[in-house]
Amino acid sequence: MASVTPWEAKGNIDYDRLIQEFGTQPLDKTLQARLIRIAGEDHHFLRRDIFFSHRDMKWLLDEYEKGNKFFLYTGRAPSGPIHLGHLLPWLFTKWLQDKFHVRLLFQFTDEEKFLFKEGLTLTEAKHWLEDNMLDVAAIGFDPELTDFLIDTKHAGMMYPEAIKVAKRVTFSTAKAVFGMTNQTNLGAIFYTAMQAVPAFLPSIYANKKIPCFIPHGIDQDPHFRVTRDVLPKIGFDKPAAIHCRFLPGLGGMESDGKMSASDASTAIFTTDDQKTVKRKIMKYAFSGGQATTEEHRKAGGNPDVDVAYQWLTFFEEDDHKLKRYYEDYKSGKLLTGELKQILVDKINAFLKEHQARREQLKGKLDRFIIKDEAAFERYQ
Amino acid sequence: MASVTPWEAKGNIDYDRLIQEFGTQPLDKTLQARLIRIAGEDHHFLRRDIFFSHRDMKWLLDEYEKGNKFFLYTGRAPSGPIHLGHLLPWLFTKWLQDKFHVRLLFQFTDEEKFLFKEGLTLTEAKHWLEDNMLDVAAIGFDPELTDFLIDTKHAGMMYPEAIKVAKRVTFSTAKAVFGMTNQTNLGAIFYTAMQAVPAFLPSIYANKKIPCFIPHGIDQDPHFRVTRDVLPKIGFDKPAAIHCRFLPGLGGMESDGKMSASDASTAIFTTDDQKTVKRKIMKYAFSGGQATTEEHRKAGGNPDVDVAYQWLTFFEEDDHKLKRYYEDYKSGKLLTGELKQILVDKINAFLKEHQARREQLKGKLDRFIIKDEAAFERYQ
Asked: What is the mean pLDDT of residues B186-201?
């Protein structure tokens, strides 16, 4: 049985069922085509249904075409190193920023994991905040269009807004949406109000409703369901959202669930060196191949369960290449080791550039971090 | 049946039973005498048991005599005008500040009533914040030793500390201590963590444990019970506290409960003019006298239920005068109208000075309001 909450995603996930359960909309071909038309460019995350679900995107694009630009909002709860799975919504967010030339408000919820994980200290969270900000900046967001909002640092702006949300959400709702119990702590109970704030903070300072568009992993939807429920009650529009599938851990979705930083053998981190990437993929990536080369040549592999192939659907932009890998693996022409090497090369090429940008950005994050309320004047 | 919670105090309150129920300590004569000895002066709030209960005052005075000065912490939730009942703990706080020459951290919980009262807007709360700050400053606190901490304004300093408290308090505890239910909103649930913060905020910046002493109405004890439970778990000492009785409303404790701003006929506000004070006391103060002058002269009055007399125990510092009023009223020598006039004169003399200070302070509150973290360096 698959389980998807803001804290866990495990099992073979039936994404159609998730759309039904969460009450989101499937990202159908018409809407996809419209997004691509306005963007002026296609994206393999779209045509491969990696972004597969949404809320209110039709409204968002209507507003955009009327000249009412949206801003992007996404985020990260610092509690460990960044792995490839974390990057998916951010890579797509960068593409949206580039194509639509819109601002991005990136929230670092540096209190979230402190409140939800017994063992994590605020000092550790602060360490990971610094580390994670580097990775986010290294995605290549435009510093002129990007603002980092940090919950503990910017609480002065956020708490007075969060209470407006919090007043409109009962413990009953928190129980139903997040599975909270009598043993949940008061900070964890309140937290969802802090995650709602970026969706309307620019509207507060602009003194007009600015549409908000949130690319995120589908597991965060419960938070934004609360946000969407409350915002119209306090004078703002519901934010629109676009949801992506999970990158499976190296052991595959059924065994590992979505990629998780807590098990180093299932995740590839942005700071892993080329050898480590190769070793992890060669050793741990669940294979759809046969037990011996002979058998594989004869019977062929199963790309649909092969993690190396699955990952290539996320990281190989070229449809022709991907199709060839699929067919060659299925026919037995491509061996598991060869398919894995293709993935290793792809990931290492990506990480080489990412790590170079990461190094360059050390000590240079200040220009991303919000200084004061004036930052929001640029959202109008 | 008397009911005492942070939101209500009604009925004939049995203060001994409250000590038992809340688990506080009676302020016995030995401790009272020690406080008076160190202060170098007596206070009628002490010798009349208006401050009747405490937590950890022995420890606090031990520390003080070892040279480890405490700071005072008290507060106010702005949601309406200030009445005489609000002033009691503040008047005593001023006396403590003067006698012990210690800093006062005064918290304005300007989000509290917004979160707990359905109808109150943040704009109204802000209006009352400005108004109430004037009254607090008009008490005569030393501006050099007093800092106003405002929850929404200083959330940047407070929220990162509040989450440390919030992590250690479960919803179970909030249910047991505050009677919270599934219908309570998330902000109200979190709120007690914000009220805990001033008790250790100076210790954070001083990087050492500074004893904290909280004079307050006994009804706020549930909040500080939570604070005292959590602080040792996050590296701080439990704050000490001293608790005062309630000033009854004009109709008396049984009918009105403690003085409340929500019924103008039971309260005298700091901004009431001399005529209004006289009218309210003459018209509404519950009388322990007889129906006619003749009967009163013969049978005498009952000062123990007479509100004018009760109030004089709070506002007439002179024991001899008070004793005379008691005896003369009981004997029938003093009529109800005469006793009320004595009270009117006393209150009006007090308010005349208070209102003059209040006027003088208009536009001059900035020196009380905390500018930045540097304020806390003065607490060491």
From this structure: 98
